[in-house]
Amino acid sequence: MQPGLRYLPGHLGPEDQRQLVENLRAAVAEAPLFTPVMPRTGRPFTVRMTNLGPLGWVSDRAGYRYQPTHPGTGRPWPPIPGTLLELWREVSGYPHDPEACLVNFYNGGAKMGLHRDEDEEDFAAPVLSVSLGDTAVFRIGGPERGGKTGTLKLSSGDVLVMGGASRLCYHGIDRVFSGTSSLLKDGGRINLTLRRVRRP
Ligand code: MD3
Ligand code: FE
User: Fold this and answer.
1) What integer is the mean pLDDT of 115-121?
2) What share of the chain in percent tops pLDDT 90?
């Protein structure tokens, strides 16, 4: 385990999980999932995304960035649900609210390669992750690419707080195990990451 990484297995109970899924269904109706593409190459991600909050993370041929509006509709992102703001206030140890909640949707074949989250100005704030639906294999390494890595299974209701040194560690999702949760009626996995983008 990396210093600053806190793993809170099953932190969200079934009722909170179901409520979040309901919030997300409404949010996705307003701000549909889109398929980001890699900068320059235009190669599509296997994960689909949307965002909640004043800023959202997007990736397209022009690069990675945070922006206030959905790339397809041009409308502002829906608000971050109260349950997530309460969770952030409870576990982040950071005195300002998050500005972005990236919503990642994984179907059975989706994965996310090793990367660092470094498009934010404020690395003093942790990144907080909530897993919903099918179980995934999460991989985390150190601050340099090519270092030693380890894995952790993330199940529905698990919360991870990446603060301190862990904030800038390489990480990714190796695979998702289809059919391991009945939370989402069509299966798959949702990961929510709450982020502070700008310095307060
Ligand atoms: C460790 N998401 O959205 S969440 C991402 O499950 C992302 O969808 C993965 O990586 C997912 O950028 C992993 C856990 C996570 C998130 C951010 C981190 C781990 C992290 C930032 C720094 C270190
Ligand atoms: Fe990440």
Assistant:
1) 98
2) 98
Q: Which residues contact 153 (CB under 8 A, 6 or more apart)?
A: 135, 136, 137, 138
* CA gyration radius, the chain: 16
**Closest Cα to residue 148, out of 193, 113, 114?**
114
Q: Which residues pair with 69 in a beta bridge?
A: 76
Query: How many angstroms separate the Cα of 180 from the Cα of each of 4, 44, 80, 85, 128?
Result: 29, 26, 27, 27, 23
Residue tagged 């932190």 (tokens):
11
Atom index in ligand 1 nearest the CA of residue 191 equals 8
User: Residue 123: CA atoms inside 13 Å, Cβ hemisphere, count?
Assistant: 11
Residue nearest to atom 8 of ligand 1 (CA): 191
What tens digit of pLDDT does each residue of 137-159 get? 999 999 999 999 999 999 999 99
From 65, 104, 144, the mutation candidate for ligand 1 (largest count of ligand atoms within 8 A of CB) is: 104
